[in-house]
Write a structure and sequence with these properties.
- The protein has helices at about 15-25, 45-60, 75-85, 100-110, 230-235, 245-260, 265-285, 315-325, 350-365, and strands at about 5, 65-70, 95-100, 115-120, 145-150, 150, 155, 160, 165, 175, 195-200, 210-215, 290, 305-310, 325, 340.
- Helix 1 (about 15-25) packs across helix 6 (about 245-260) and helix 7 packs parallel to helix 9 (about 350-365).
- The protein folds into 2 domains: about 15-260, Aspartate Aminotransferase, domain 2, CATH 3.40.640.10; about 265-365, Aspartate Aminotransferase, domain 1 (Alpha-Beta Complex).
- The protein is α/β, with parallel strands linked by helices.
- Bound molecules: pyridoxal-5'-phosphate.
- The site of pyridoxal-5'-phosphate has 11 residues, from helix 3.
- It is an enzyme of class 2 (transferase).
- One of its GO terms (molecular function) is O-phospho-L-serine:2-oxoglutarate aminotransferase activity.
- Belongs to the class-V pyridoxal-phosphate-dependent aminotransferase family. SerC subfamily.
Length: about 375
């Protein structure tokens, strides 16, 4: 049986060497006579996995010591709720910059208990661009400014000529949802108060979420909350207040080791740039057969939504691409059309195969 090139937006394709290693270690992890997922999370074996994973992630992403790293459950959506509970005092404003579906979700999570100010909104423009920084209306005394580094559905990413565009919001801590672009290129973590990301796109499997927090923020009182919603308590409990998702954490660890062995985030930045450039070029040179409507400067390197000029061809495109071993290209129901998610683990050969399929399909149906 051969593996397809899988363009799923998340859970997403994993590196083959990671899957092979997990398979080889499935019945007997490192000679202990059991799978890692059958052992106590507090035993020496899993503690080794947990500590190595954190150390490796710190190396991979150059996370400074004054940042805590948590491995939590609940996905990115739970973190969207927890950030306001932990870091905004009752009545304090929080600022939200919305550039797509997930930014809207983030704002909705906090409206029950803080004032969430819509500082900038790309929705009137159909989420095809990032509102210019000088149009943002930030609040005085905001607890933080939140934005989504890469909008997975709309394919909109904060970019600048040098790579990632980290907005300047002065002294207010910048909080960012990096679910679909974490570790896809070098990033200056020190510019952020909080970064969070579900692992299921660029870091490995679903079921574990990475939260990176500047430690001084943990001294904030925030809102009244149960211990299980408290980041300080999670840190003190080494991300083990719940029985942690050990299998997912272990797979994340293998994926991070694989990324380090491949050359780290600098290498993935180059691969990701080449992959996305090839796809956008295929779309832009199709004479309108395919189109992507996102402003060029804000086009995502990770998720490339595109439309066929005639939506009556969508079913044939999906059927033929699947038959050609290119799977999960159907666009999100919010947008329709197609979407190719090309995270770190998508090989360049996969994007090359997709680009030539697209050209071939156009010739046959154009
Ligand atoms: C950018 C972004 N934020 C948040 C989420 C929600 O993540 P989760 O399902 O892990 O809660 C997603 C899921 O695709 C996402 O892409």
């Amino acid at each position: 049986m051969s593996r397809a090139f899988n363009f799923s937006p998340g859970p997403a394709t994993l590196p083959e060497p990671v899957l092979q290693q997990a398979q080889a270690e499935m019945l007997d992890w490192h000679g202990v006579g059991a799978s890692i997922v059958e052992l106590s999370h507090r035993g020496p074996e899993f503690m080794q996995v947990a500590h190595e994973t954190e150390a490796d992630l710190r190396t991979l992403m150059a996370i400074p010591d004054d940042y805590a790293v948590l491995f939590l459950q609940g996905g990115a959506t739970v973190q969207q709720a927890l950030i306001a509970l932990n870091f905004a005092d009752p009545g304090q404003a929080t600022d939200y910059v919305i550039t797509g579906h997930w930014g809207k979700t983030a704002l909705k999570q906090v409206t029950p208990y803080v004032h969430a100010n819509l500082a900038a909104d790309g929705e009137p423009g159909g989420f095809r661009d990032i509102p210019a920084r000088n149009s943002w209306r930030l609040s005085d005394g905001a607890a933080y400014v939140h934005y989504t580094a890469n909008e997975t559905i709309h394919g909109v990413e904060f970019r600048s000529a040098n790579g990632c565009d980290i907005p300047d919001v002065g002294d207010v801590p910048l909080f960012a949802d990096f679910s679909s672009s974490i570790a896809s290129e070098p990033l200056d973590i020190s510019r952020f108060g909080v970064i969070y990301a579900g692992a299921q796109k660029n870091l490995g499997p679903v079921g574990v979420t990475v939260v990176i927090i500047r430690r001084d923020l943990l001294e904030r009182a925030g809102q009244p909350r149960a211990g299980i919603f408290d980041y300080r308590a999670h840190l003190k409990g080494e991300s083990m207040l719940n029985t942690p998702p050990t299998w997912n954490w272990y797979l994340l660890g293998l994926t991070v080791k694989w990324m380090l062995a491949e050359g780290g985030v600098a290498e993935f930045a180059q691969r990701n740039a080449r992959k996305s450039a090839l796809l956008y070029d295929t779309i832009d040179t199709s004479g309108g057969f395919y189109c992507n409507e996102v402003a060029t400067a804000a086009r995502s390197r990770m998720n490339v939504p595109f439309f066929l000029h005639d939506s009556a061809l969508d079913a044939a495109f999906l059927q033929e691409s699947t038959a050609a071993g290119l799977i999960s290209l159907k666009g999100h129901r919010v947008l329709g059309g197609m979407r190719a998610s090309i995270y770190n683990a998508m090989p360049e050969a996969g994007v090359q195969a997709l680009a030539s399929f697209m050209r071939d399909f156009q010739q046959r149906h154009g």
